[in-house]
Amino acid sequence: MTDIELNGVSRWYGNVVAVNDVTLTIGPGLTGLLGPNGAGKTTVLHLMAGLMAPSQGEVSVGGQSAWRNPEMYRSLGLVTERESVPGNLTAWEFVLSSAKLHKLPDPAEAARKALAIVELEDAQDRRISTYSKGMRQRSRVAAALVHDPTVLLLDEPFNGMDPRQRLHMMELLNGMAGEGRTILFSSHILEEVEQLSGTVQVIVAGRLAASGDYRHIRRLMTNRPHQFTVTSSDNRLLATVLMGHASVSGVSLEPVGVLVQANDYGTFTRALAKLAREHKIRITQLIPSDESLEKVFSYLVAT
Amino acid sequence: MNLTIMSLTARAMLGRKRVLMLLPMPIILIGLTLIGVTSGASDAQWGPVVFSSLGISVILPLTALIIGSSALGLEIDDGTITHLLTKPLPRSEIVLSKLAVAWLVTAVATGVPLAAAALIAGSGTLAVGLVIGAAIGGLAYSALFLALSVMTKRPVAVGLVYIVLWENILVSYVSGTRIFSVRQHATAIADSIGNTQLIDASVSVTTALVMAVIFIVVGTVGATQRLRSFALTGDAN
């Protein structure tokens, strides 16, 4: 009853294709929807939440069509990316009104529970406009949770959170996923999802690029080829030593330092310090080449 | 109707600075009435100018536009509409609740000053007529502007085009278009009840009532249909 299914779904705006022929099924547990900015993540989430009609294909949640079907919201909650909160309300009023709009039998009790889950009880009587970004985010999560949905969609929930808040949110999501709910969140920052234990769907340029176990994708990422610029007390010696190591596929001696082409990010970074110490070379600088996330994702697509 | 939606809407609407825009108009209306009463001119000379041309033709539509376009439009603008849309509510319930609030606020904000002005002018029946005219006309306008706020991103601009171009300019050149003018309906209703020289209508009250009902039904059904397939527009992230 809690599966989200996309079957050959495309969505275009005029001439721009935002989502291109995506077929996927998301079951209970925690799933990350990863991809660079502009990849179509928000469009996918809005399609699932019934806030947008697919141009082609079918979207269903728990076997029901998502589009033009308000009844679906009895079992689905959505936290949008846009920081849209009625700032004139307090978190209590906001979450309570959500509970009432869901026509729950005991709205006050449901609101209390939801605010407790996100640990916002202490601030619940302050206006939302006085909240920090993380608190606003949590108030919106509480409002989306108030009816105890079996499916929860979150668009960039970690945006603007500090590492501690992020960890807390991840624990929260993991906990809810452990109860058998289907939790799907999107993110464009891979570092954000390091504590994730679950599956991921990677979407690039509107297409589903990879899907599977996060640890597998993570390994692909740490094992990807990478460039570094190293400066040291003896660049020539360092170049010679590095060339002898299996993780290095190319070395060139440049005026700025030693340009290293490593074919395995993880192994190289571990080996470098050991090699330098053995040959009494002092490393003064180690700069990983500036790699955009788009590049990482497209590497994933290519493998 | 949904009391939660209604109270949230009323709070959001009355808690904004925009509502202050409603204040100057009744003051001008009552000021002009006082001038008319004390000027010594006959009722037929100044009454229609104040009650029809200003009261029903300017104050009623502008008030209804400011209120009707914000009842749902503000939430669409700032994205909080998703909170309402992701609830298991029939879309008609959302539209009817929003319409009820817009109507109540419009009717009070226009009916009270119009009635006060009519009483100053010494006509109790006109006061009743104006209150009923403003109530029915206000409902028709509210339904129209609420529908516009779901159908276009610029409901205020489109609403002004209707008020200024259609109701003012077109109606005065092409007389047949007046039956599609809400303010003519409101004037006809107020005139038939008021029965004084202070106001002067140009369409029959039967036509007015029928057309007002059509505006109300088409606006409400149109807004509901549109909200049913309301798609969030936004960047394709």
From TrEMBL, chain A:
SUPFAM superfamilies: P-loop containing nucleoside triphosphate hydrolases
Keyword DNA repair in annotation: no
InterPro entries hit by this protein: AAA+_ATPase, ABC_transporter-like_ATP-bd, P-loop_NTPase
The keyword Nucleotide-binding is assigned to this record: yes
UniProt keyword list: ATP-binding, Nucleotide-binding, Transport
Alphabetized GO MF terms: ATP binding; ATP hydrolysis activity
Domain ABC transporter: 4-230
Protein family according to the UniProt entry: Belongs to the ABC transporter superfamily.
Protein name: ABC-2 type transport system ATP-binding protein
Organism encoding this protein: Actinophytocola algeriensis
UniProtKB/TrEMBL annotation, chain B:
Protein name, entry field: ABC-2 type transport system permease protein
Transmembrane segments: 50-74, 95-120, 126-148, 160-181, 201-223
Keyword Lipid metabolism found: no
Organism: Actinophytocola algeriensis
MF terms in GO: ABC-type transporter activity
A GO term from the CC aspect: plasma membrane
Pfam families: ABC2_membrane_4 (PF12730)
Taxonomic lineage of the native organism: Bacteria, Bacillati, Actinomycetota, Actinomycetes, Pseudonocardiales
Keyword entries, A-Z: Membrane, Transmembrane, Transmembrane helix
